[in-house]
Amino acid sequence: MTPANAVKRFLLHEGSTRPAALIRIGLGLLLWARFAPDLAPWNGNVPFHPLLAAAFYLGSTGMILGLASRLSTALAAVATLWMVYGLGPDEVEPWVHHHTTLLAHATALCALTPNGRSYSLDRWLAARRDTLLPERAPTWTLRLIAVQLTVLYLSTALDKARPAFLSGERLQHAFHALYQGADPVTFPGFATLCLVAAWVVFLLEIALPIGLWFRRARVVLIPAGLVLHALFWLLIPVGTFSATTVLLYLAYCDPDGVHRELDRIHGSG
Amino acid sequence: MPSPTQPFPWFRALVFAGLTVAMCVGPVNNLVLGNPWHRFFKPWRMYYGFGTDVCEVTYVQVSPTGEERTLDRYAVLDVPDPRRAPEDLRNLPDGPTIGRVAQRMCDALPGRRTAIHARVRCAAVRGWKPFPELDRDLCALGTRQLDGLRPARGRRR
Question: What number is the ipTM of this complex?
Answer without folding.
Answer: 0.92
